[in-house]
Amino acid sequence: MQSLESDHAVDEIVRTLRPGDGKAIYIADVEENPFTQQTNYAAVEWEYSLNELKELMTEWQPKFPGHAEVDRIQVYYGFDNLTPDGIEAMADEARITGQKVVVRDLKPNNTLVGIQLTYKGENTCILHIFGTTKNRIQLSEQELSQVKTLLVQGWEAFYFSNDGADRLVWIEAGSSGKALQYELMGEQTSDTDLIHIAEAMSTLA
Question: Which of 34, 97, 101, 124 has an alpha carbon 20 to 30 Å from 175's alpha carbon atom?
């Protein structure tokens, strides 16, 4: 999580990313790690069953809420990483032109990187699961000051309100060893309620 007030060049670019955008960024005046890739995955409707989606995610071994009916399924696909030659070309362009920041578009691919499940119930609940743990969550200074640190099944979690939704975010290693980022969202949903849902999640659901 980070403040929206940050003025770092990468943060400025991230704030302009639209769903479906992926950017390779080279910053010339940074000595360590001058290259980064930033993405804003676009949600795509999943036309098949939840069981078929689970089969596709077998290697992830994710957890799901028990006894909850899924109303809508969406998935997120990734981008190809820029090649070493592509990165070197960006560095060359920065040296030749004097540009401090060089940006390239990343090519979308069909690799599943995340899912979004909307559950029916008295209060709509949305679950995100991502196979990448570098997702940025941008908060105002006021929102950052109100973040609560909690535990979900022994894993460190963060509860906060953002964009009109209450959110619980945590990262844990699945039974396969792959690190997964989970996010539960609800409207006017207390940390206790979201923790209750998260604690009941399992790979058997």
Answer: 124
Pairing of strands 125-130, 138-139: unpaired
- The position carrying tokens 């994710």 is 62
Residue among 126, 129, 133, 125 nearest 115 (CA): 129
Phi, psi at residue 50, to the nearest 5°?
-65, -35
Highest average pLDDT, of 87-96, 139-148, 186-195, comes from 87-96
CA distance 64 to 117: 10
198 burial level (CB within 10 Å; 0-12, 13-18, 19+): buried
User: What phi and psi, each to the nearest 5 degrees, are found at residue 59?
Assistant: -65, -25
Residues 138, 130: Cα–Cα separation, whole Å: 17
* Tokens read off for 81: 């990483």
Strand partners, 117: 73, 127
Q: What is the pTM of this model?
A: 0.87
